[in-house]
Specification:
The protein has 341 residues and is an alpha+beta fold. 33% of the residues lie in helices and 21% in strands.
Length: 341
């Protein structure tokens, strides 16, 4: 079955007002430290080494537990609707694809839709770790293909880590599962998926694919009660699957890697992005790098990276895009498209 004719709008993003540079985060860790003082230099040096390896420099965090996840998603959603000239009452679907949420039920998408003033809409959540938002785009495209009466879907996410991000590290051994959390930032993002092009430029999606290896489900977790934990070294090793899956999709389209003008990838670190590009045989100058500006913002990293790309360069009609994200599970979602004016 051919991929449906759908378009992906320019994204809108929302960042918390508080900027945390590496030294600010180190201060938080030091303030919480009450362990053996002889171990502190080892802990500090290990954290700084990871930041250097990942190119982690700045992130935005909202640590206020009273601030609602949906409110961040609503802000990005309203901005996305406005900049793409779509009224909220024209939405047929609202999909929330974030990890962060306030409750088990109802879906966060329901709160977002309610705060957008929608009286009736198809609204639900997609949970797929860092791949949730891009997977939401995939699902939206499928629904628009199945329903003749559906014209627009809003796909949004808001990642507020709050108490799930631990700055409480007392032993060097704890770094094994906690150090990846020190490369995380907060952000909200929203995308529109529609059957007609959006004004000012957008991406016509031509293919999307999902590839999951559930045997690795236990390498990364954000538990109901507790702190985010990740066996990051083992998880990053699974990135060897990313380039082969991209090539399978590109081969199906008849595209060469050299044909791609813009690579917009998930941003767990600059090193990971560069390694995937190397495995793919791609020109690293064609990629966008945003980890050093915002850190790893989980499910929102791909739209945040796309937002950054649009600040740095102006795509031309016909430019080819390759979007990709990888997530705990282990799941890969890839998307290909062409820029249209």
């Amino acid at each position: 079955m051919p991929f449906p004719s759908v378009y992906l709008s320019k994204p809108a993003i929302t960042l918390p007002k508080d900027e945390y540079r590496n030294e600010n985060v180190m201060e938080l860790i030091r303030e919480n430290y009450s362990g053996d003082q002889n171990n502190w230099p080892l802990i500090e040096n290990a954290i700084r080494k990871v930041w250097e390896l990942c190119d982690t420099k700045t992130r935005y965090l909202d640590l206020d537990v009273t601030h609602r996840v949906a409110d961040y998603a609503v802000r990005s959603s309203k901005d996305c609707l406005a900049q793409n000239a779509v009224e909220a009452d024209r939405l047929d679907m609202v999909i929330y694809g974030g990890i962060a949420r306030e409750y088990f039920e109802p879906s966060t998408a329901m709160e977002v839709a309610g705060k957008l003033g929608l009286e009736a809409v198809h609204a639900f959540d997609v949970t797929s770790a860092c791949a949730g938002l891009l997977e939401g785009v995939h699902i939206a495209a499928s629904h628009l293909n199945m329903r003749e009466d559906y014209q627009y879907a809003l796909v949004c996410s808001a990642e507020l880590t709050r108490e799930f991000l631990s700055f409480d590290i007392q032993k060097p051994e704890e770094l094994v599962t906690k150090i990846a959390g020190l490369t995380i930032g907060n952000a909200a993002a929203a995308w529109l998926v529609g059957k007609t092009p959006f004004p000012g430029g957008c991406v016509k999606l031509v293919e999307m694919q999902n590839y999951s290896l559930p045997g690795h489900w236990d390498l990364c977790s954000a538990p109901i009660d507790g702190s985010f934990a990740s066996f990051s070294q083992e998880l990053f090793k699974l990135n060897v699957h990313c380039a082969p899956q991209m090539k399978i999709m590109l081969d199906g389209l008849g595209w060469e890697v050299a044909d791609i003008d813009h690579f917009v990838f998930h941003q767990p670190s600059k090193t990971v992005v560069e390694k995937v590009l190397s495995d793919l045989g791609a020109d690293p100058q064609k990629a966008v790098y945003s980890h050093h500006l915002y850190a790893n913002t989980s499910s929102t990293t791909v739209p945040v990276a796309m937002h950054q790309l649009l600040q740095e360069r102006k795509p031309k009609a016909g430019d080819k895009f390759l979007f990709s994200t990888a997530a705990a599970g282990f799941t890969i979602v890839n998307a290909a498209g062409e820029w249209v004016e």
